């Protein structure tokens, strides 16, 4: 079905999620380079792009989950793209953005505090929520450097 194929294309971030080792880190790194290279300076436009990616990502996860036998398949990495995007939303400095990448991966992997519990929601909500919270934590930490 074409809807499932498009959903898998998006939820795997153009099949980066199918990379054998560290697909979440690779998707986060790709997001870092895209945001640094192509995102406009206008914060409103950045916010609109982030919201668009988040909405499309949520529905692609929801639609592609039926193709997997896992509650949180490793191949689905659009949630890392969304969380990393939130981390970078207000940043333009390369050094601070690099710190955001490192912090996001640390929060995403270790899942401290409420981030850990958020992943237990069912479906697309649980898959996305932990990455959104990790991205939010990074943004709160680094907003002072804007």
Written description of the protein model:
With 146 residues, the chain is an all-alpha fold. It has one domain (22-145). It is 69% helix and 0% strand. The chain contains 7 helices and no strands. Helix 1 packs across helix 3. The chain starts with a helix and ends with a helix.
> Mind telling me the C-alpha Rg?
14 Å
> Helicity level, as a percent range?
55-70%
Q: Return the string of H and E elements.
A: HHHHHHH
Strand content: under 5%
Number of domains: 1
Structural class call reads mainly alpha
Q: Can you tell me the residue ranges where pLDDT is under 50 for at least 5 consecutive residues?
A: none
- Count all strands and give the number: 0
Number of helices: 7
Main beta-sheet strand count, sense and barrel state: none
Cα(first) to Cα(last) distance is 45 Å
Mean pLDDT: 95
Broad shape: globular
Task: Please give a handful of descriptors for the protein shown.
mainly alpha, 69% helix, 146 residues, globular
Annotate the secondary structure layout:
Layout (H helix, E strand, L loop, with lengths): L1 H10 L11 H16 L4 H22 L13 H11 L5 H17 L3 H5 L4 H20 L4
Brief overview:
The chain is an all-alpha fold and 146 residues long. It has seven helices and no strands.
């Amino acid at each position: 079905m074409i809807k499932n194929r498009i959903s898998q294309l998006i939820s795997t971030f153009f099949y980066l999620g199918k990379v054998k080792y560290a697909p979440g880190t690779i998707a986060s790194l790709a997001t870092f380079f895209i945001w640094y290279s192509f995102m406009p300076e206008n914060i409103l436009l950045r916010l609109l792009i982030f919201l668009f990616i988040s909405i499309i990502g949520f529905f692609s996860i929801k639609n592609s989950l039926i193709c997997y036998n896992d509650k949180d398949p490793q191949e689905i990495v659009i949630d890392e793209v969304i969380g990393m995007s939130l981390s970078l939303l207000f940043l333009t400095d390369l050094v601070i953005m690099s710190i955001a990448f490192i912090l996001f991966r640390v929060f995403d992997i270790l899942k401290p505090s409420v981030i850990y519990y958020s992943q237990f929601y069912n479906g697309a909500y649980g898959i996305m929520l932990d990455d959104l919270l990790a991205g939010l934590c990074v943004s709160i930490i680094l907003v002072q450097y804007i």
